[in-house]
Write a structure and sequence with these properties.
Helices cover about 0% and strands about 55% of the residues. The protein has no helices and 10 strands. The chain is globular. It starts with a strand and ends in a 7-residue tail after the last strand. About 10% of the residues have low confidence.
Length: about 120
Amino acid sequence: MQLLVLSNGRNTTISDAGLTTTRHLDFAAVGADKTMWRMPISMGVGCKDDTLVVAAGTSASAWSLSKRTLLWSHVLEAPFGKYGAGDGASMGIDCNTLRPGKDAVAVHAGKRTVKLALADGAVR
C-alpha cells in the first residue's frame, strides 16, 4: 500500500500585500489493486519552542525539532478533528488547529477535549 498526498488544485490571489497561492491537498491510499481512495483524515499541527505536536486519527504525538526524535505519543478516545468520522467527501489539513500553551496542548477528539502536557504527554 502507498500513502500519497495529492494536489487537487490551487487558488492564487493578488492583493496589496502581494501574491498568495493556496494549494488544496488530499490524503489518498493506493492498495494492491491500484485503486486510489481519498482518505477522510484531519490533521492538526502546533509548535511551542522545540516541540512539534501532531494529531491525526486516534493519536497525538510530540517531536523534538532539534533532535528529530519522538518525545511521546498518546492514544485518543476518538478520532481527531471534524473529519475523523467523515465519509471522504470532506478533508482537511489544518496547521493552525493545535495551539500549545505554556506547558500543555488541548486536542479535540470527538466530543471531548484532552489536555496533554508538552513535556511528557500526561493527561492534565
